[in-house]
UniProtKB/TrEMBL annotation:
Major place of residence: cytoplasm
Residues in Translation elongation factor EFTs/EF1B dimerisation domain copies: 73-289
Keyword DNA-binding: no
Name of encoding gene: tsf
NCBIfam families membership: tsf
Protein name per the record: Elongation factor Ts
Location within or outside the cell: Cytoplasm
Keywords in alphabetical order: Cytoplasm, Elongation factor, Protein biosynthesis
Length: 289
């Protein structure tokens, strides 16, 4: 019997995108003949995953992962062919596992993620195996890693995995992360991010081009009023102020209580925790964006 080397297994895997153990079994059965091993894989049905690679993947899920210490997290979008699979616990669980790999390893892009170890194989191997097991093409569409040094992350998933966000909270006392009022506050803020889709967490983080675009529209609207230029400027600035209040997270009305803003809510939690909590940024993924 011919020796089945690691190099031969690797070559067969690259040819067929099949799982490592299946390639090894096929090579053993084919007595080391790689062409015969391909036929063995085809008969086993494993190589069908390659044929599925061309199918459209318009359904799927967004997964959110935050580490136990709240310092590291990731959002990841995994696509598939049908909504039925998109809500399958095996599929969504795999997406969660991938998000954890992203958080723990900080890959530069999808190719780097695919090359990372996952269990006894690589992410690419596990993805191929999942394609084979479930019977649909799948793709890692995008991901983003999020970290915080002094503070904690919180996440929220909405619409059965079609929308998710991670929000960054910064504060000075480590024990604040375990405070129940803070946890409720963090959950509510993440829910606000998901529901309202703010432009940024803070006014100073609104992109300059967005401000310029909005102001140009407000100036054009004010010009139609026929009022003096200095009045037109005041009108435009007033509308820009309204834009901030509607689109900057900390200045938005709290969706559960319109009598206060998110900044007002943060001040209440500051008193409860005897700390100063700042919402510095967030990452929001809506599936298919």
């Amino acid at each position: 019997m011919a020796q089945v080397t690691a190099a031969l297994v690797k070559q067969l895997r690259e040819m067929t995108d099949s799982p490592m153990m299946e390639c090894k079994k096929a090579l053993v059965e084919a007595d080391g003949d790689i062409e015969k091993a391909v036929d063995v894989l085809r008969k086993m049905g494993v190589a069908k995953a390659v044929k599925r690679a061309g199918r459209d993947t318009n359904e799927g899920t967004v997964a959110a992962y935050v580490s136990e210490d709240g310092k590291t997290g990731a959002l990841l979008e995994l696509t598939c062919e049908t909504d039925f699979v998109g809500t399958n616990p095996k599929f969504t669980g795999f997406a969660n596992d991938l998000a954890k790999v992203v958080a723990e390893n900080d890959p530069a892009d999808v190719d780097a993620l695919l090359a990372l170890p996952m269990g006894e194989d690589t992410v690419k191997d596990e993805l191929t195996e999942m394609i084979h097991v479930i019977g649909e093409n799948m793709k890692i569409a995008r991901f983003q890693r999020v970290t915080v040094e002094n503070g904690a992350l919180a996440s929220y998933i909405h619409l059965g995995g079609k929308l998710a966000d991670i929000t960054v909270f910064e504060f000075s006392k480590p024990e604040t992360a375990q405070n129940e009022e803070f946890k409720t506050f963090a959950h509510d803020v993440c829910m606000q991010v998901a529901a309202i889709a703010p432009v940024s967490a803070r006014r100073e983080d609104v992109p300059e081009d967005v401000i310029a675009h909005e102001k140009s529209i407000y100036m054009a609207q004010a010009a139609d009023s026929g009022k003096p230029e200095f009045i037109q400027e005041k009108i435009a600035l007033g509308k820009l102020e309204k834009f901030y209040k509607e689109n900057v997270l900390t200045e938005q009305e709290f969706i559960k209580d319109s009598s206060m803003t998110i900044a007002d809510l943060a001040k209440k939690v500051d008193k409860a925790t005897e700390d100063t909590i700042q919402i510095t940024r967030f990452v929001r993924f809506a599936f298919g964006e």
